[in-house]
Automatic annotation (TrEMBL):
Subcellular localization: Nucleus
Record's keyword annotation contains ATP-binding: no
Domain of life of the organism encoding this protein: Eukaryota
Protein name: Putative exosome complex exonuclease putativeribosomal RNA processing protein 4
GO cellular component: cytoplasmic exosome (RNase complex); nuclear exosome (RNase complex)
Family statement: Belongs to the RRP4 family.
Tagged with keyword Hydrolase: yes
Domain K Homology, first and last residues per copy: 173-211
Domain RRP4 S1: 77-149
GO biological process assignments: CUT catabolic process; exonucleolytic trimming to generate mature 3'-end of 5.8S rRNA from tricistronic rRNA transcript (SSU-rRNA, 5.8S rRNA, LSU-rRNA); nuclear polyadenylation-dependent rRNA catabolic process; poly(A)-dependent snoRNA 3'-end processing; TRAMP-dependent tRNA surveillance pathway; U4 snRNA 3'-end processing
Gene Ontology MF annotations: exonuclease activity; RNA binding
The species this protein was found in: Leptomonas pyrrhocoris
Keywords, comma-separated and alphabetical: Exonuclease, Exosome, Hydrolase, Nuclease, RNA-binding
Amino acid sequence: MSSGVVIVGDSICGGEINQKLSTSAEEVYLRGFNTFAGNNPSDVALIHEGAGEIVAAINGHIEVTDRVVSVKGLLPRYQPEVGDVIVGRILEVAGNKWLVDVNSTQTAIMLLSNVTEPGGMLRRRGRGDELGMRQLFDQEDLVAAEVQRISPDGVVSLHTRAAEKYGRLCGFGILVSVRPSLVKRAKHQFVELPDLHADLIIGLNGNVWISWKKAADDTAEEKERESEARQNVARIANCIKALSAAQIQIHPASVEAAVAASLEAGFSAFDVSLDKNQEAFLARVQDIVGIKRRR
């Protein structure tokens, strides 16, 4: 199913109006968040004549989860949910916690007790650990973390204890920030691109970290590969910026398709950033993954 952009009053599915979902004639969908019933009001939309109709209540992207149709709003700020993978920036070290910018309406917090020490050690933290917090994360550091909980007043708590891939983001890499509503929830937010020697962390808060995957050896061949890998990281970053400018949702499949299309067109990493080239290769992205573009 393609994930398109709708405006208030657009028919998403059902009835005899142009359908936004690529479905078979017998599929059944339920109304979810930010939708309402149109013709033949019902909580269920059958994709054939005379069935209920699901209509968008806000401007946004269509999202379908287990046949429940919702619309994700085009909001400029991130709306966190428990379990989200985010890429944030440390704003301040305060007491036994870090304050983290996650592109939301409030600054998130990350407690010292919710951070794994180097080597995976978990233990009770004391005053000495608080004095050494800047050795773990300091101001302006980028960090990959997960939303652990959200308090009733909206304060977001983060942790980095779930996997080794969480923690400080260092080494050669590029941070690309896009509108959070353009980032589509996917099975994996951590993406490996082995052919390009690059790794991605697609933060659901709109921050995407693209890094060079350095090999363990330090041979002449690896040093030559390093220059190519840096070009690849720049290419991926420019492809994501192009997807964002075209209002195309960003997820592993669309990023990989954009990179493949840019290589197929013979564009350099710099060429991808030129407006005159983007229309051609983004049209190819649409062909590869069937993404509906916003006009």
